[in-house]
Fold:
Amino acid sequence: MKFTEEHEWLREEDGEMVVGITTHAAEQLGDVVFVELPDEGTTVSKDDEVVVIESVKAASDILAPVDGEITEVNSALTDNPSMVNDDPQGEAWFFKMKISDASQMDDFMDEAGYQKFIG
Amino acid sequence: MSDLHRTPLYDLHVELGAKVVPFAGYEMPVQYPLGVMKEHQHTRSAAGLFDVSHMGQVILSGESWDHVARSFEALIPQDVLGLEQDRQRYGFFTNETGGIEDDLMFARRGDHLLVVVNAACKEADIARMRAAVEPEIQVTEITDRALIALQGPKAGAVIAGMDARADEMAFMDVADLTLDGIEVWASRSGYTGEDGFEISVLADEAELLARKLLAHEDVKAIGLGARDSLRLEAGLCLYGNDIDADTNPIEGALNWAIQKVRRAGGDRAGGFPGAAAIQAAFAVGIKRKRVGLRPEGRAPMRDGVEIFDAEVGGSRVGVVTSGSFGPTVGGPVAMGYVATDHAATGTSLWGEVRGKRMRLSVANLPFVTANFKR
Structure:
């Protein structure tokens, strides 16, 4: 699993990247009450706003970590947004993407690096 | 951060693991480890303890109650003179155009008035009161007391367990109580729509009192995050969002808070800032009105969301002034201003969120039935 400075994680699965937010990010957001997911098949560029998360207090965006195509979204989150708090690094993945340029992942952190990053 | 004030309960908040944020010039707990949602639900099902020491507590005193009450009536459109001993009332300072400068609670305690105002407005409020009533009436800011609210269906039993006289208090009664040896000024009121108390206590005894309350199994510390979602579900205004210097009380749907004796035809009609504008709003009506709003989807509509009368095109007919997820309602809830001809309950409108218009309907306030002790 790789981690970004935007507090996302990426996990490779069957040649695609599964993307979610970290436990740390979920704790910071607080109770998630709404998740808006992108359309499957959307082509995105790194740093595009692809997901909207609303907690009780505020709205936040999740950015595309890399260029690519959204191949699948976790529509269970739409009906059950609190999954993001319950299991952020497992069941509550947001989307899967086919990435265009693997070199964009070179700067991402491993688990130890991320733990150090959040201090 | 150095310019921020701390309340007498600051160390306790930190010890309890609160996330502390700047709010109205104070470092205040926005949430505890329990989290906003569970804090909200705990307050609705048991009892929540809130530190509201940032609010201003001010005493107006003079040679007689009559004199104090009449002087205060020059500043607010409420019936002060008619307030009974040991009773509290909601009110607001108005300006010359009939707008609301701040909202407040005032209580008749003996021959004086205790006024509680919002933290962000308290300096201006005190200056306004001094300018209007001194030197005949003394305006004393109380700086040596904290203010704690205990709110929720279990609050009554918790307080009555410490001083049985609390059982005699109905909604908006005030009394001096002794809670486990600590003398307090209590009112049976709050900002959540639940039964509960607001308790003024000497600053150096505040932490001890808070610890005694928190020792009760039904009581948990609750932050400003849940305070906001609780008051929103209860349909209560947040000054600066839902009412401000440009909204008059009629637009703000606060007609009920202006007693008949101060309205046109009443024995003490007018005589407060903006009286002509407010009487005109009563007489000829208003163009916009504060209403409850219920988004139909799951997406919260927060303050600033613009409201339209059609899904495509149409006209802008209003704006959201407070909006969030309502944990007790189980969905998004909001308040805002809409044009009077769109203000009827059930009217279908659209709120524009992130460029998309989503359906919402005008709803009755409060969203959650009030649970006061009558």
Q: What stands out?
A: Chain B has a mean pLDDT of 97. The interface with chain A takes residues 30-31, 35-38, 40, 225, 229, 298-300, 302, 324-325, 327, 332, 354 of chain B (CB under 8 Å). The two ends of chain B are 43 Å apart (CA to CA). The CA atoms of residues 64 and 111 of chain B lie 6 Å apart.
